[in-house]
Design brief:
alpha/beta; eight-stranded parallel β-sheet; globular; four-stranded mixed β-sheet; single chain; 417 residues
Length: 417
């Protein structure tokens, strides 16, 4: 499909987060501009005072595993470990066509909710090779007109512990992966974890790409690879180019050690992605009461100046049986899990859906500034709080200045006598 260059659009009466007055937004040839050129043939759209964002950003999802619920055995224990075992046993049965079909369905659902950028992790290991990666690469090319998709080459089974996967990761980078992933705590001990991280950074430097790892997705307070990752980030001069997903164990650390690691993350400029739905579902399974809920120290990280965002992670699979990739639903979940109910917290939660998430995936052309990609979502809401409270499905989604999706809701009811 040839990629459109973009439309020219004038949006009037647009309400931006944190602004009392409405504004006019101009998109020229698919990018934001201060004003329309004289005589420009622009479409005009009245936002009617509704809240607008420059497209939601999904910074952490697994499109290759989505919608497997019902096609694989039930995760009887509900744990991360059993979920990984189940998916490992069924990878060879998954065809590229099936992976692409399910991924396409979720990407379409995400777009209807206003997501115009996605970063997906895709499993690469010696059991399944590059089947899933190639399927998502083809799907990315197919949907590029509608949604930007970044692909992270993700060695869930380890690098040191899965001999041969290092070569596969390099092949994935050569074929167009956007970032190198990792899961260092899944290796056999701290030394192997360090080696895992070192290999990933070596591949990143060879490819000129960013690093995005699953880090300490565990209740175990001895899961301490976040510190290793931050140290490696600084040592390799990769500040601002590394993202750590999950970091669940950070919540289990003693407070003094947690503070030290948080300060190190701030120094390394590492972005943190929490995944409230999946993390709350998988973590704390072995606890008596009180039960840990798997959410990292969101408020402490934010207070230290760390960029924090959230993602869907898994959906309707052996890891997490729910979800349809709506950032407002995830914001609602995280508000409860991280005790974020103050008006300032709500503003931050809403910023996580686009500004924080865009920073985490290195999307420097995201926003309303001139030259940024002309994506826009008009919500049925007047404020971030209103958007999170109601989570209305009524949304108009604009991609590079052209409307690509509109969702409306019709209600009828009998009058009360």
């Amino acid at each position: 499909m040839p990629e459109r260059t973009g439309g020219t659009l004038r949006v009037i009466n647009a309400r931006l987060p944190g602004h009392d007055q409405t504004v006019t937004l101009n998109i020229v040839d698919g990018v934001y501009a201060d004003a329309l050129p004289d005589g420009a043939d622009a479409v005009e759209l009245d936002a009617a005072g509704r809240l607008c964002v420059p497209g939601f950003v999904e910074p952490h999802i697994h499109l290759d595993k989505a919608l497997l619920l019902g096609d694989v055995p039930v995760n009887e224990s509900g744990t991360l470990e059993e979920a990984i075992t189940i998916v490992g046993e069924h990878k060879k049965a998954l065809s590229g066509d099936d992976i692409a079909r399910r991924a396409r369905e979720i990407a379409d659902s995400a777009l209807s909710h206003g997501v115009t950028r996605i970063r997906t992790h895709v499993d690469i290991d010696t059991r399944s090779g590059l089947v899933a990666f190639d399927a998502l690469r083809a799907m990315r090319a197919e949907l590029g007109d509608l949604v930007d998709i970044q692909i992270v080459a993700f060695p869930q089974n380890g690098i040191v512990g899965d001999p041969g996967v290092e070569d596969l990761l390099r092949k994935a980078m050569d074929r167009g992966a956007d970032a190198i992933g990792g899961m260092p705590f899944n290796e056999d001990g701290p030394e192997a974890s360090r080696r895992h991280i070192d290999i990933a950074f070596a591949i990143a430097e060879e490819s000129g790409c960013d690093v995005d790892m699953h880090v300490d997705e565990s209740d175990d307070p001895d899961a301490r690879t976040l510190e290793m990752l931050c140290e490696a980030t600084i040592a390799n001069g990769y500040q601002g180019r590394v993202t750590a997903g999950h970091t669940c164990a950070l919540a289990a650390y003693p407070d003094d050690y947690a503070k030290r690691v948080i300060d190190l993350a701030a120094k390394a400029e590492v972005s943190i992605i929490t995944n409230p739905g999946t993390n709350m579902m998988l973590q704390g399974r072995a606890d008596a009461h009180p039960k840990r809920r798997g959410i990292t120290r969101v408020r402490e990280l934010l207070a230290a100046g760390v960029n924090v965002a959230f993602g869907q992670d898994n959906l309707q699979d052996m890891f997490y049986p729910f979800g349809h990739d709506d950032p407002l639903e995830l914001a609602f979940l995280l508000a409860h899990a991280a005790h974020m109910g103050h008006p300032d917290d709500i503003a931050t939660l809403f910023a996580m859906t686009h500004e924080h998430a865009a920073k985490a995936i290195g999307a420097t052309d995201h926003g309303f500034a001139p030259g940024c990609t002309g994506d826009l979502v008009i919500l049925d809401a007047e404020s971030p709080l209103d958007a999170v409270i109601r989570r209305s499905p009524e949304r108009t989604v604009i991609r590079r200045g052209e409307t690509v999706c509109e969702t409306s809701v019709s209600r009828s009811r009998r009058a009360v006598a």
